[in-house]
Amino acid sequence: MRGRAIRASARASRDMFAPTGECAGMAVRDHFRAHARRRVDLGATLRDRQLIEEHGVRIRDLGLGGAGIELSEAQLASELLDPEAPVTLEVATPNLWDPLSLRGRIAWIRRGAAGRPARAGVRFEHHDAGALYALYQLLGAERFDL
């Protein structure tokens, strides 16, 4: 009897966090970020992995899992900005001497409308513990709060 009560309780708590309504058909990744983002205004350079092409961009939000960047409409024509293209984002940070180099992939791209700049998302692929720790420290710094 007690076993059934425990299973029913576990099922109820699991269902409590299940997506409902419009979100029920969406994958978890489509509507939920595993890591929070922080609003920032940082300069950065977006490069391809072969270091052939690069673009100056502005980072508008940043987290452990990725970044939202602003770029010009002219930069959207670049092959560097294809979805899932491997990129390196070099961030000019207020708390490090050298730029912070973060590897990732282009997750999404949105064209600008009505005079607003285009935006793109970069999903980070952490391969270097030192860079991840530096990003963690950057997110904890208060010098660039908006």
Q: Outline the low-pLDDT stretches.
A: 5-26
Count the helices. How many?
A: 3
Question: Topology as H/E string?
Answer: HHEEEEEEH
Q: What proportion strand?
A: 35-45%
Main beta-sheet annotation = 6 strands, antiparallel, barrel
**SS content category:** alpha+beta
| Shape estimate | globular
Strand order of the largest sheet: 1-2-3-6-5-4
For the CA atoms, what is the radius of gyration? 19 Å
Helix content: 10-25%
Average of per-residue pLDDT values: 76
**How many strand units?**
6
How many angstroms does the end-to-end distance come to?
56 Å
What is the structure about, briefly put?
The longest helix is centred in the N-terminal third of the chain and has 15 residues. With 146 residues, the chain is α+β, with helices and mostly antiparallel strands. Helices cover 21% and strands 36% of the residues.
